[in-house]
């Protein structure tokens, strides 16, 4: 029985308000139990780092996600490994064989020039839903705010479905500093300049998720969410945690 007035949440096949989880090797049977309860609040599942390549029964895992209408894809590290070894054709064939319809183009570990990533987006967008990632996993690499904004804009204009802001599974790089603090000025500039419904903010920890929910709204797109935190995140989105208790209904809108 529902009796509380809560922030409006997107539902069904969401285009925003997305929860994207990071699967770093949860066993198949355990995953089935989790999805039977929480599958309706998960939209995208990243098989983290390059783990898909060594995951037992990976075909069954992908089929299980699809059973719950969750889009699976392989982490950007696997893409970068294929790029580094000049085996992107083999990689895309691998994705097709697994019936994975999404592909991440990133440069978190190796430096792939923006023009090269744009060419890859143009080549792949007719066959896959392309997600690009901006930012490095190396916390010592600096990108100016203007470079962040320009790169996200250019990748979206090239045809990416979404752009992910790097944060790692530890929340210590990309849009975070080494100590895990959010670069709030960067986030604010991204909000001002870009439709944040097209950005997936990596937010691996509840404290990061709370920040984005309070700043942007209950339907902010969040990624690198741990499976164990999925229900906690949904409660936060609904204003059912003290840190988001006074959350008002809000949606990400196009920049003015």
Automatic annotation (TrEMBL):
Domain of life: Bacteria
A Pfam match: ComA
Alphabetical list of InterPro entries matching this protein: Aldolase_TIM, ComA_synth, ComA_synth_sf
SUPFAM superfamilies documented for this protein: (2r)-phospho-3-sulfolactate synthase ComA
Protein family membership: Belongs to the phosphosulfolactate synthase family.
Protein's UniProt name: Phosphosulfolactate synthase
Organism field: Siminovitchia fortis
Upper classification of the organism: Bacteria, Bacillati, Bacillota, Bacilli, Bacillales
